[in-house]
Design goal:
Strand content: 25-35%
Largest sheet: 7 strands, antiparallel
Number of strands: 9
Radius of gyration: 19 Å
Order of helices and strands: EEEEEEHEHHHHHEE
Distance between the termini: 22 Å
Structural class: alpha+beta
Length: 238
């Protein structure tokens, strides 16, 4: 019998220190974006702030203080606002699929026309010094805030088309990668669910052989302080 050896449910975990960069609207924080196939969750471990969200149902602002648990489903545009040293543990569905590209930033429409145009506006020069990477991360954050504010204003003024157009553009941008993502899902969340089904079948049959194959896993972060969409990230290989 196969036992799934990844994190429970094939989630991914990272530590996030939210950017304190000032944006054009006077708020400090991260880069607005959405995920197309992944639910994301936050456990607040320090500081304070909020998460601004935008869906077809409207705009919402949820406070974030230590102990808060907040999560949202695919299609939720989200923007983290850092009021005072906001730090989170981030839980991500599908084995960290967003780190493999399941995220589209709310850039203005001129940057969403095709994958090459989008990539040019969002890529970080990872081979360059940290100061160069930081400038690039800040520039893409500012572009995404510009697009987010326009989408929010349109939605709040009763015009759903700009948000719907962004959804269409996001789906078109990620379409070439869908097959690759399916492979990650099959090896992760789908495999985890199938392993649980096998174990339940065994227990219903009075068998417990899988219990003899238990393992303990431990990891330290594989990277510290990487420039993420919302802040500096400590990430794990899992």
């Amino acid at each position: 019998m196969v036992t799934f050896e990844g994190l429970p449910g094939a989630v991914a975990v990272s530590h996030l220190s939210v950017y304190d960069w000032l944006a054009a609207d006077g708020l400090r924080g991260g880069t607005p974006h959405l995920h197309l196939t992944c639910t994301e969750g936050y456990v607040v471990v320090g500081g304070s702030g909020s998460v601004q969200t935008l869906t077809a149902s409207g705009y919402r602002e949820t406070p974030l203080t230590p102990g808060a648990l907040v999560w949202f489903t695919p299609g939720t545009i989200h923007r983290l606002v850092n009021e005072d040293g906001l730090r989170l543990v981030v839980l991500m569905q599908n084995s960290g699929l967003p780190e493999a590209g399941d995220a589209v930033l709310t850039l203005p429409p001129r940057h969403l026309a095709d994958p090459d145009t989008y990539r040019l506006a969002t890529a970080l020069p990872l081979s360059e010094p940290e100061a160069v990477q930081e400038r690039a991360a800040l520039a893409r954050r500012d572009l995404a805030v510009e697009g987010f504010l326009a989408l929010r204003d349109a939605t709040e003024n009763g015009d759903p088309e700009p948000l719907a157009a962004f959804h269409r553009a996001a789906a078109a941008l990620v379409r070439p990668r869908a097959a690759e993502w399916r492979g990650r899902w099959e090896k992760g969340a789908a495999a985890a669910a199938a392993a649980t089904g096998d174990q339940l079948d065994a227990l219903e049959a009075g068998k417990a052989g899988h219990l003899a194959h238990a393992h303990v896993h431990a990891e330290r972060p594989s990277a510290h302080g990487a420039f993420g969409m919302c802040g500096r990230l400590d990430v794990y290989r899992t």
